[in-house]
Amino acid sequence: MTTDNAIDLRGLRKVYRPAGGGEAKTALHGLDLTIPKGSIFGLLGPNGAGKSTTINILAGLVNKTAGQVSIWGFDQDVNPRQSRASIGVVPQELNIDPFLSPGAALEVQAGLYAVPKSERRTMEILAAVGLADKAEAYARTLSGGMRRRLLIAKALVHRPPVLILDEPTAGVDIELRQMLWSYVRELNAAGTTIILTTHYLEEAEEMCDRIGIIAEGRLVASDEKSTLLAQMDAKTLVITPEGEAALPDAPEGIKVDRREDGALAFTYARSKVSAEAVLDLARENGIRIKDVATEEAHLEDVFVQLTTRS
Ligand SMILES: Nc1ncnc2c1ncn2[C@@H]1O[C@H](COP(=O)(O)OP(=O)(O)OP(=O)(O)O)[C@@H](O)[C@H]1O
């Protein structure tokens, strides 16, 4: 089957039903999501939005309640083996087997994916993640950063065309982060589609070419980064005027509202309008500035905005 999408999710639903018969929890409400081949896709969302659920369904660790999951053109229900073989997942937790050296861990993983001995490339992968000299090391001697790299190596043994990294830089120092990202970029340049979840907007901004936002189990946005960031860079400059001030006619690109306390709120796109232009507008309209404050848009605000709009 050929398709331009690495991932295709249609009407994906997940309802968690506690074993004891407690209240059922709907984590995904019919999610539709496509991720084009070759992209570095950032899956963002507030806590509890459903990111882990989505990734765990892709990884085959959680069973969906309803919907279609297609990975690299393979329907998870029709071709479970091929769809699983098309994806590698780097989990959030730094769990590694304490009794296996990195080399042995990769061999075991290759065995799990039925990679024939002649096609294994344990040393090549270890070298790629900077662990060549640790191939025979005791697992317990590996630092946190080395463990993270070992987990990436494990996710790559079966050469999956899609690699998912779940919160890869949580608790990771800057140096490792840089190394991780440059390696992820290399993989992507060599053709691997990358999907990552992160809580850090700056990280998504730096790394991803496309971004999907999930809120409360629904996709509220999925677009090219540049398109989304244009919405995300709304900034508000709040001017408290000296005495009474009329609401000025705002030029295109600036929106003016009067707050309850009499302050004037100028909302604009930071990438297009300068704060200077906003202050000029106030002065031109004879507004004498008693106090001024700025309010940045947070990803959280964008979620709210997008959720209420949809
Ligand atoms: N095993 C489970 N049983 C019951 N409810 C669950 C289970 N796993 C997740 N949930 C619930 O499903 C919803 C989505 O959770 P999920 O972990 O997918 O969100 P998330 O976006 O990954 O959040 P975070 O950023 O905190 O990891 C949450 O309300 C969560 O409490």
From TrEMBL:
InterPro entries: AAA+_ATPase (IPR003593), ABC_transporter-like_ATP-bd (IPR003439), ABC_transporter-like_CS (IPR017871), ABC_transporter_ATP-binding (IPR050763), P-loop_NTPase (IPR027417)
PANTHER family: ABC TRANSPORTER ATP-BINDING PROTEIN, ABC-TYPE MULTIDRUG TRANSPORT SYSTEM, ATPASE COMPONENT
PROSITE patterns: ABC_TRANSPORTER_1, ABC_TRANSPORTER_2
This protein's record includes keyword Secreted: no
UniProt KW keywords: ATP-binding, Nucleotide-binding, Transport
Protein name: ABC-2 type transport system ATP-binding protein
Molecular function, one GO term: ATP hydrolysis activity
Pfam families reported for this sequence: ABC_tran
